[in-house]
Design a protein that fits this description.
Length: 441
Amino acid sequence: MRLSRYLLPILKENPREAEIISHRLMLRAGMIRQQGAGSFSWLPLGKRVLDRVCRIVREEQNRAGAQEILMPTIQSADLWIESGRYDDYGKEMLRITDRHERKMLYGPTNEEMVTDIFRAYVKSYKDLPLNLYHIQWKFRDEVRPRFGVMRSREFLMKDAYSFDLDFEGAKAAYNRMFVAYLRTFTRMGLKAIPMRADTGPIGGDLSHEFIILASTGESEVFCHKDFLDLPVPGENVDFGNDAEVAGIVSEWTAPYAATDEMHDETAWTEVPEDKRLTARGIEVGHIFHFGTKYSEPMKASVTGPDGQEHFVSMGSYGIGPSRLAAAIIEASHDDNGIIWPESVAPFDIALINMKVGDPECDRICGEIYGGLQNSGREVLYDDTDQRPGAKFATADLIGLPWQIIVGPRGIANGEVEVKNRATGERETVPIPSVADRFGAR
């Protein structure tokens, strides 16, 4: 993509309304535009990041055996009345009446709707286990939306819902999602630590928040330093082997980890002092087992091997891709701007033409641009007539992993300069070897 034809509204100054780093940088880098309180348009650069995040989420959900569907944003209130949540949910739910005076709502979550889908089609234990997920926009009428897309009213959410015959099956489903989440966040360049979360009236211990450490996090967290070195399961993890998956979960829940809400000072004192880590953290995922909370009032049951009807045991598993885009920035930035991990970067490479209009600079940039695209690399080619300093500032601000700098002096020596955005390291590469230097994607 040529920058001269790309919608990239860079802001030179920090917006006054932005309180945290990710909000400031997303606005300055032209990723988002605020349309109202807690409501944002995702501009081309931001949408590319969002798509990259969603792709990783999908791949790991599919690998763990979940099946993607797509449910409406507008839901019938009848389902929520049936489950008993319509009156209890509170003012965060945006309630709507259609032209026929039917009660509707803009979905803040989808337990009722997915349970309705399940009960319409699944009647036997032989069709279990089942996990259905979708990636869809949600709306919660927050009393005070803030921090940009980190806490907005309208947000993109991946929510998955598991259905099993009994608690043992539900626990295995929970473990699969636990491991899938570890892999998902690692692939995005994040170190996510699972921390025990409150299960509310359901009880038990099957609820975890996944927290990344960031100085601007909203929660204070306490964890054992061993988490920083625990191995994340690779692509070869066998999600069909319940014992193997349970073993991974056991390893990842053995050390102490808790947010301030769940912190146990007595248990904390048992952690060796040199192994204690206290920091700020951002929640990027939440998994939760709730048993028959929805299946029982909504009569979602299957015939078991004993010939009896059993209300299915359910769980829900959430990741917010729009929130994740901001969380990655909070965890990966410097004074000059964003530093995208390669897996979620909107483009792989920033190609910077230092002297647009110079025949040799234009020719060499064109050859490099075409060669990199042919090898599968996504390139943002800065062919604008801005001064070099402004081009460098833009490249650093938007945070693409690599910069290729093409100027008359380098061309005279038959080479270009390559800069790694994360480390700042620079190297010179012979012009004919640029495409080979980056290889095929």
